[in-house]
Amino acid sequence: MAKRIPVADDSLLMRKQIRTILESDKDIEICAEATDGLEAVRKARECRPDLAVLDFLMPAMNGLEATREIKKVRPTLPVLLFILDDSALLEWESKQAGADAVLPKAEGSKQISRLIHSLLQ
Fold it and tell me: Is 9 helix (H, G, I), strand (E, B) or coil?
């Protein structure tokens, strides 16, 4: 059975890129898309995912806040947070918020599938 993953990013282009990469894997299903943090939290509750992929910078509620809210409801749900730059501070803040993994967007297309499979195990 395919693992269900919602993708949250305010950039349509980024959501499409993530969808294209992940849907090439028969073991992954994109169960929802969100354009802001509030919607990401709602979708993570509604679609009962196996993992959530969130952007760090989103309107209404950023990725850190969304991660905290998701973890309140689903503490064991793995969360992968995309950050703009490879920054030790952003990575530390993300981990403090409950993110299980952090991935700079520049490296995303190369590593996202491998990282997601690692988090799902």
Answer: coil
